[in-house]
Amino acid sequence: MYDLSSYLPARKKSTASGWISFNAVCCQQNGHKPDRRGRGGIKFTEQDWVYHCFNCGYKTNFVLGRPVSFRARMLLTWLGVSSEEIERINLESLRHRSVFGIISERSLPTQAPTFITDCELPEGACLITAEHKTQWQYLRSRSVPEDIPVLSVIDEKAYGWRPNVIVPFTWNNNIVGWTARMLDDRRPKYITDSQPGYVFGCDFVKNTWNYVIVVEGIFDALSIGGLAIMHNDINQQQAQYIKSLNKSVIFVPDQDHTGLKVCDRALELGWAISMPPWPNTVKDVNDAVKLYGRLGTMAQIMQYSEHSKIKVQLARKQIIKRLNTTTC
User: Fold this and answer.
1) Helix, strand, coil fractions of the chain, as percent rounded to 5
2) How confident is the prediction for the chain on average, in pLDDT?
C-alpha cells in the first residue's frame, strides 16, 4: 500500500527478530532530549506495524483495515509523511476492512509476538528484601509471593524520587519493560514502560498447565499466578500470544463497570469467563486472594467458569445491579 521504511532515518539497523532501530523522532516532540542511542524501534508485517521508543516511551501501531490513529498520525508526521499521504493511507486502509477482514482478525494465528529486549530498568533499582520494610510490607499486603523478584529505587536523593515498588516485565527471561507502583498518595500511582501486545506473566507459564487464568491487573496476576492484560481491553497481539500457549483460558474481569466490558471481547476469542459472587468489598482477583487465599480463590474461579454467553450476561447483570445499588 505504501513504503513507510523509505521514511525512516538513514542510520538504522535491523535485528534478527525483525525490529528496525534508529534514533527516535518522537523525543523532542514530547519534551525530551534528542535520542542519540537508536532507542526508537519499528517492526513491520504484511498487515501492520508497531513502533516503540525506549527513550521517551512513545508507542503506537497501525493495522491494515483500521483507521490511522491520532498517535500513528503524529509519528508519520514526525517521519516526514505529508498530511495528504496520511489521508490516502487512511482511506486505503479502510477499503480493506470487509467481512473477510474482520473474520481474519478473529481467526488469529498462533505465532507468538516478539519484543525489543534491551529495555533498561530505572537507574538505582535494587531487589526488595525484608530490610526494606515499607516496600516489603506493601508486597505482603498485596499477597505477592516472597519468591517473586520485585525491585525498588531506594535512594531518596534520586531525582523525582517517590517511595515505590517496581515489577519487571520479562520475555524469555529478558527485561522488556517494567511498571512502578508509587506508595504515596500522589498521582500518577503507576509509571509504566511497556511494549504493545505484551502480556504480563508470560514467563511464569508452565508446560504442564492445562489452563491459564487471565486478569486485568499486575497484582491480580502475581497473587493468583496468572496472566495480566494490564488494561481494560484485549488487543490483537495479546490475544495472539495467549492463543499460542494452546491452553484453556479463563478470563476473570474486575468486578466494576469498566472491567465487565471486556467480557464481550473475551467471549469472541473463545475464552471462558468467571465472575464468582464475591462481596462488595472484593473488586478483583487480588482482593479475593487477600480474603480467601490463593487456593480458595482458584477454587471459586474454576467453579464459576462459564462459556455460555447467556449465563455470562446474567452474571454480569447481577454484578452491575449490585454496583448500582452500592453507589445509590
Assistant:
1) 35, 20, 45
2) 87
Which of 61, 65, 63 is CA-nearest to residue 52? 61
What pTM, to 2 d.p., does this model score? Answer: 0.69
39-89 tens-digit pLDDT: 899 988 777 888 888 888 888 888 887 778 888 889 999 999 998 888 888
Nearest by Cα to 268 from 309, 229, 298, 304: 309
Q: Which helix (H) or strand (E) holds 146?
A: none
Cα–Cα nearest to 160, from 128, 131, 123: 123
The answer for 145, left when phi > 0, alpha when psi is -120 to 50, beta otherwise, is beta
CB atoms within 10 A of CB 210: 6
Amino acid occupying residue 161: W
Domains by residue range for the chain, with CATH:
4-106 (no CATH), 125-327 (3.40.1360.10)
**Nine cell digits for residue 153:** 529505587
**H or E stretch at 93:** helix 83-95
**CB neighbour list of residue 308: distance below 8 Å, 6 or more residues apart:** none
Measured CA to CA, the distance from residue 312 to residue 305 in angstroms comes to: 9
